[in-house]
């Protein structure tokens, strides 16, 4: 049993647990009971001996009467008070016992150590561990000056008690004190590995297989601050805040609790409440690390980067083991253009993570114990923590080697005399950057003097924009019924146990109307080979849409591709009115030009010769502003070594490869020279460090008139590439022959490089749109497991804030490995919803993580997102047909790419989803039949296709705003469209119900990439329109 679960040492005379099976003897029998104990009447027998004998003989009433008589004579008799308190405690009357002990304070000269330690034991029995910690501190201060053994024992007990009640900063100070004295225990040393977490934390008690140690239970902590820290570390932030609000919660009145409240508010992204909290507590809590963590996150939300850096350095000065703070510091240094400092903090954070992993293995006593212990020692040395290192070494040396122990003791004594050794860990964590390098005074002054409620940096909720979920959508897999028979094969072997990283990526999907008949056709990627040299046994496939039914036309259209294909981009690269195909592969990417007669021709030879690439997502868009579509190519990592199979660990389990073990590949873009040829440009490391690209989106994010490129990277910082202003005095790629531009990476500055946790995520799918109806372009990104999705909402000044936590998407997405994700207003309540396909990249069920995962649906209300499944809707046991229709949502998959299209022209967007383990699904949106409100909602839609005249024909970057019943709805024409996909090139709008019985017509405003602005009036709902740039007439398409 752990030290913090125990009492105050050996108390053989105290029955810590009274036996309830033995009823107390009535007090009126006490006199006769005493009389029977004639041997106790002797003057030589002390009061204590008499009471001990009576208690041992189960004569508690007699003992109580005897003590009562003594206290009547002398109420201040310390021994009698102690024995009475002990007696009451053993009888189960802890409150009465405590009342007796509270008559004397630790400073009272008559109070004995024994008496004061009994009070501690009583407080713990009452689960008042914070009060017990205060009592222990009083004893140490008043009664241990001459007793080193007692002081050490009480310090160990104080550390355990502080851990239990959540006062971790104070507990760490005790553990550091013991480490410097060379007397720290194993548990105390492990608690110093991560000082800001509860001890033991959920992370520390989680085994490699994902299960938790039997000690992993919140009962290890007191209600109040102790449980709050446990819940916080377990990701249950609202539960943590609730614990701090308990009126009698232990530790809730301490500075630690007040500081921790701010940290929770920061995690919950409660910006306004946090601002008030910061103003109220700045002076009182500036010595608490939790205060500086909260302040760092607040300044980051406010885009006050220098102030955030100042707060981060302050926090690391107090606690150099806080990995979250180190991660914040790394991102902030990059944002502030201090790349070397950013690299240092990034490396330091990795060292901290490796140290935590080794400590967990040592703590749980798992396999590789000795190797992990050696790793732990090495890491502690590298992190500048010599006293912890010496203590760990001491614990590994047997008493039979006193010479080694003496040597270690001499080293410890020598280190104590060195001031640099005492400050080494904090200096290492800060990289010796002086805290005053960055100032926060101006920002503090502005915060404190601002009048009224603090204005949040994020336009998180537009006024009066809130709606309930109207109904649960019906999305039914109709792929087989409509002839879309396709299944992605990542290999001829189909071996999930040894699946390579490139095979786990899945196949892409592209939607295009290749024959220009007005119906969306589909191109689906295929693998089934060992790249890059071998050709696949099965080609990628083109399906022609024949009025809502699909037919394979790959061979007749000459659109076959036998490479190991990944992402698919569709667009009119030569501006002839027919969409072309740009196909990513492991090897050489291909360009298939649409001949306009139902066939394609291979135009790959128009590219400049280049080495093989591991390409992922592609996009077709005008990047240099010449009204010709260029190409963007995202690359994962260098092709050499890309095809390695997973290896077995010491337990014989295949372990997933990591992209961080490979050199990331540089992304490239290709300038359209207008004659069918292309000029290759590589995004250099000076602009953006190579980043294992996965998802890509291109559009005019900020209304600047030029397209930007967002690249979601796997376990490396994301990129946001923006065209830099021309500088005639600088020799760049801007010469007319290359048609190039200079890009700058603004991801760090704009808040898109990483999510709210301050670390790179495994970014896969990307959904786009105006999520909070403020007229600005937003992003939602699906991430790896234990990484909640990102919900990047754009602020007024063009920066982004990740508000997944505030909007309720943190917990449901955290356990998932998300891939394709799309935003569509499924219930037509006025707010975009999300559909996400999930599935792990590797079978890690041995570590407690699922392999196949369920798809998810998140319904937007304007203030949050509610996780729903179509199986929640009216499909009880008596409705068998409806259950069968919803079968897709009742299973788990290895989902990958996703694209949207309206394949049957019913005005509702459908979803095309590829998998590793299941045929491609076509989720038909059948939400608008049945109940009257569904039928009515089925009429409230509008679809718009754009064709550029002065702009390039696909009009990538165009912004369309629709005015409906006094409300404005906004959408953008994008390229890339997320993970390995191209959506149908149509802007789809859905509208909420209004009181009017007749649907209103709508007005439309279009901001074209050329810079022109076009207004169109009285479009009717329930139709699709074609709009030509600059033409006043619109064309009503089917239906």
UniProtKB/TrEMBL annotation:
InterPro entries on file: Crtac1, FG-GAP, Integrin_alpha_N, TPR-like_helical_dom_sf, UnbV_ASPIC
Domain ASPIC/UnbV positions: 955-1024
Region (Disordered), start-end ranges: 16-44
Compositional bias annotation for Polar residues: 29-41
One Pfam family matching this protein: FG-GAP_3
Ranges in a coiled coil: 126-153
Keywords assigned: Coiled coil, Signal
Transmembrane segments: none
PANTHER family found in the cross-reference section: CARTILAGE ACIDIC PROTEIN 1
Record protein name field: Tetratricopeptide repeat protein
